[in-house]
Design a protein that fits this description.
Length: about 325
């Protein structure tokens, strides 16, 4: 128990036979259950966890029959926590990259009812640039910008951090069967939380690397797949939150902005085609292209500003 609240820690694991023991051994005593989800590992992860189970009744093992990805493993753990009535569920990776000392700071906003979801932010610390591999650092920053726009949580950063705590209320709101199953799970979940007006807290944590973990992320592939996911989730949020549940005029600003953006692309293609074919640029074409570009920018920026205002109370 932590502040008289029952705590479950979800531990997704895939081929973590060398790391999972460290995660279990360093788990804080106040944690009531450790739910290890083996995502069809090909090494001895299950055998190692079963060995720890013999001497620790807090450990629960869920073994997937087929690999579902980290998002699928987390969904299984969240479903178990929801069905067993836990007040809060944290996620700590099975590779040991999440410092147990940071767990109370993540739990506090949720158990004190100041937030429905809290997440670690490794970018707050000045050491993040030095500790996080450069490709992952820049990829994370790019995806964070896209996720701010898609999710509506403009005060949050480091969306790829999987160190999180979710409340009992939020556990019961989300349809875990429909959540994205791969590395874009944190991004997908934040968009869904925003539709339900859940409060999110961003908590500074220390980045942990070089503890024996092996990265399973192909950053170049992930950037494209998550970017496509975020586009779809952004459109879904606009429909669910600002049309179906409670209409907001920012929909018109986004629609007109994207219309002008399309017109801008068409006009610039025509402009460069004329330049290439005839060696000159039609003045009216150039003027129309610039007008369309400026209009698109202004309408989209105003829509973002309206979105920020609509979500400022979810901080």
């Amino acid at each position: 128990m932590y502040k008289n609240k029952s705590i479950c820690v979800v531990i997704p694991a895939y081929n973590e036979e060398t790391q999972i023991g460290m995660v279990i051994e360093t788990m804080p005593d106040f944690v009531d259950r450790m739910v290890v989800i083996d995502d069809c590992s090909r090494d001895r992860t299950v055998e190692v966890v079963k060995g720890y189970q013999k001497g620790n009744p807090k450990i629960v093992l869920i073994a997937h029959e087929a690999n579902q990805g980290v998002g699928g493993a987390i969904a299984s753990g969240y479903t178990w926590a929801r069905d067993n009535g836990f007040d809060a569920a944290a996620v700590m990776a099975g590779d040991g990259q999440m410092d147990p000392a940071d767990l109370p700071a993540l739990l506090d906003p949720v158990v004190d009812n100041r937030a429905d979801y809290s997440k670690g932010n490794r970018l707050f610390t000045g050491e993040a640039y030095k500790k996080i591999p450069k490709v992952r650092y820049y990829g994370n920053a790019f995806l964070s910008l896209l996720t701010k726009i898609a999710s509506g949580y403009w005060h949050v950063a480091d969306f790829q951090s999987g160190y999180t705590v979710i409340s009992k209320k939020a556990l019961n709101l989300i349809d875990w069967g429909s959540m994205y199953k791969r590395f874009g799970q944190p991004n997908d979940l934040l968009v869904r939380l925003n539709v339900y007006n859940c409060r999110v807290a961003d908590i500074p944590i220390e980045p942990v690397y070089n503890v024996g973990e092996r990265s399973k992320i192909n950053i170049f592939k992930v950037i494209f797949t998550i970017s496509w996911l975020l586009l779809k989730m952004f459109l879904w949020r606009m429909k669910e939150k600002y049309i179906i549940r409670d209409f907001h005029p920012l929909i018109f600003f986004y629609a007109i902005g994207f219309l002008f953006k399309f017109i801008t692309v068409v006009l610039f293609i025509r402009l460069f085609w004329y330049w290439y074919m005839f060696g000159h640029i039609p003045p009216i074409n150039a003027l129309a292209a610039m007008f369309s570009f400026m209009s698109a920018s202004l309408f989209i920026l105003f829509a973002m500003w309206f979105d920020m205002e609509a979500n400022k109370d979810l901080k």
